[in-house]
Amino acid sequence: MKYNRLTKEQFEELHPEFINFLATQSIDKAEWDKLKAEQPEVAEQELDVFSDLIWEGVLSRAIYLEHFSKNHIFLFHCFEKHIESIILKSLVPETDFLTKEGLQWLSDNMFTETIEMKIGKKEYGEDRNAAIFGLVQQGAFLSDGQLYQQINSIIQS
């Protein structure tokens, strides 16, 4: 398996897609129930293959990622061959970017000496999707890129 297996909730959300996936392999409901009962290892493999297909599709379309922690915000823009990042760090320890107040504080103090900003760029290497998946495993999530674009436009001007 290249990525992680989807969660029970994700499988439930993707139930119609999973049914279609099984149908492409000529597996109907009766066959699936039989597989789960008589060959659970084969059923597990089907779950893994489906999970990898879903992850591959999601990661291939990923353009922006965000990761928030108490004192850091990591913003990523994913290109075909490289990823660019903007990292914001609060130099005020009591700031908490995981709260509404922390984000308001960031807005009020964005270009002061209390915010450290770093900009980076890194080549993916062999596998773009695996690199992006690594960020997701560390807590990043897909975003619309609005925050990245706002901060980047200010930096560029």
Helix content: 40-55%
**Order of secondary-structure elements:** HHHHEEEHEHEH
Radius of gyration of CA atoms, rounded to a whole number: 20 Å
Counting DSSP H or I runs of 4 or more residues, the number of helices is 7
What value does the average pLDDT take? Answer: 94
Strand content: 15-25%
What is the total tally of β strands? 5
Q: Major sheet, described briefly? A: 5 strands, antiparallel
Structure class: alpha+beta
Q: Shape from CA axes? A: elongated
The parts where pLDDT drops under 50 for at least 5 residues are none
Strand order of the largest sheet: 4-3-2-1-5
Distance between the termini: 44 Å
Task: Explain how this protein is built.
The chain has 157 residues and is α+β, with helices and mostly antiparallel strands. It contains 7 helices and 5 strands, in the order ααααβββαβαβα. The protein has a 5-stranded antiparallel β-sheet with strand order 4-3-2-1-5, sandwiched between helices. Strand 1 (64-68) and strand 2 (72-78) form a beta hairpin.
